[in-house]
């Protein structure tokens, strides 16, 4: 199955078996992801991919302690794709590697996330989504993954091939959208974000989802916008130390790549936003999404959301980001996709590229289909 240019991969069963299915179906994309990051890290740090993988081994034990089943899943992915386990771990810890001073430097993720409550959506639905901005060179590694797992909610995510978590929603009516945040805190080795985010999406209720964020010791700072189908959203700016949080205003919550709820004390004296464009992406998204409240129905609401997320102020480093042709190919940014999940109906919509020139398409799985997908009161 495919969604225009994005493959759709469905996996099920026990962790290692799920991983094997994943690796076998996404083998080509996993190999492309490894090739891209080998080039990117050589460009930024001068390290070979073998050296990156060897250093990534520092995340094995924290990952096993936090989510042993996801480590099994990663081992299965490696087997199915015919690559090493540390290769897959490095793909899952690429955000942590980027921030780690021993690896040189790459810019962190972009992204602009949103949640719309019934009072702000025009059609009375609950929406969650984002523009996912990252290196244009990984666009041919992006895929949509559906995970059917015994005893847990069914999860739909969009990820880079080889990753066990990133952004998505589940059959319990919980959506997670995430954004990179800047700042290095200390040398303690914490849990990679892909595992924390998957734990959120593996949660069957809101409290468990939030505990995955508030009780884990992340390696880096990251923003998490959690939305529930019952008309609730909260944004958590998680760090290896303190956590800040914020709620919707008049039914709308938007977050970019700078601290909006608080600035951690470890950074306060010298903090500067890592992504200057985040400072205008957020208010532009807020302004555009405010118009959704005037929509006369669901079709119009979704069109207004897409239009809001297609804003080009500051082009090419805009809310809808396009590659900057003046930059080396390995460093060019783009909106890899725009997502819009209707938590009321279970429709998972994706524009497979920049939303200004790609329509939202419905993924051929409803969130509430299949095992553990029953809508409960």
TrEMBL record:
Domain spans labelled Peptidase C45 hydrolase: 123-285
InterPro entries found in the cross-reference section: C45_proenzyme-like (IPR047794), Peptidase_C45 (IPR047801), Peptidase_C45_hydrolase (IPR005079)
Domain of life according to the entry: Bacteria
A Pfam family it matches: AAT
Protein name: Isopenicillin-N N-acyltransferase-like protein
Organism: Nonomuraea angiospora
Lineage: Bacteria, Bacillati, Actinomycetota, Actinomycetes, Streptosporangiales
């Amino acid at each position: 199955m495919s969604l225009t240019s994005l493959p759709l991969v469905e996996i099920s069963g026990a962790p290692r078996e799920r991983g094997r299915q994943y690796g076998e179906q996404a083998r080509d994309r996993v190999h492309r992801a490894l090739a891209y990051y080998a080039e990117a890290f050589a460009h930024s740090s001068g390290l070979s991919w073998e050296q990156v993988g060897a250093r990534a081994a520092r995340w094995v034990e924290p990952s096993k302690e936090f989510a042993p089943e996801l480590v099994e899943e990663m081992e299965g992915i490696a087997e199915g794709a015919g690559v090493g386990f540390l290769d897959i771990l490095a793909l899952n810890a690429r955000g942590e590697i980027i921030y780690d001073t021993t690896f040189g430097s790459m810019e962190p993720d972009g992204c602009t996330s949103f949640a719309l409550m019934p009072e702000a959506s025009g059609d009375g639905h609950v929406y969650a989504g984002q523009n996912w901005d990252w290196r244009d060179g990984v666009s041919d590694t992006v895929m949509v993954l559906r995970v059917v797992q015994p005893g847990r909610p069914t999860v739909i995510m969009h990820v880079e091939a080889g990753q066990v978590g990133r952004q998505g929603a589940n059959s319990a009516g919980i959506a997670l959208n995430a954004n990179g945040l800047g700042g290095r805190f200390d040398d303690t080795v914490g849990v990679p974000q892909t595992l924390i985010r998957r734990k959120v999406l593996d949660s069957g209720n809101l409290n468990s989802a939030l505990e995955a964020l508030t009780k884990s010791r992340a390696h880096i700072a990251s923003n998490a916008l959690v939305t529930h189908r019952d008309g609730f959203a909260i944004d958590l700016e998680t760090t290896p130390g303190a956590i800040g949080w914020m709620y919707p205003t008049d039914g709308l919550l938007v977050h970019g790549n700078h601290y909006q709820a608080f600035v951690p004390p470890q950074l306060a004296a010298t903090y500067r936003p890592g992504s200057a464009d985040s400072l205008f992406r957020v208010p532009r998204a807020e302004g555009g999404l405010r118009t959704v409240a005037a929509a006369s129905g669901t079709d119009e609401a979704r069109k207004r959301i897409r239009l809001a997320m297609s804003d080009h102020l500051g082009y090419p480093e805009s809310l809808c980001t396009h590659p900057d042709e003046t930059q080396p190919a390995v460093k060019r940014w783009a909106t890899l996709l725009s997502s819009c999940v209707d938590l009321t109906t279970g429709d998972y919509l994706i524009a497979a590229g920049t939303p200004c020139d790609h329509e939202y398409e419905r993924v051929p799985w409803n969130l509430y289909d299949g095992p553990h997908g029953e809508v409960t009161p």
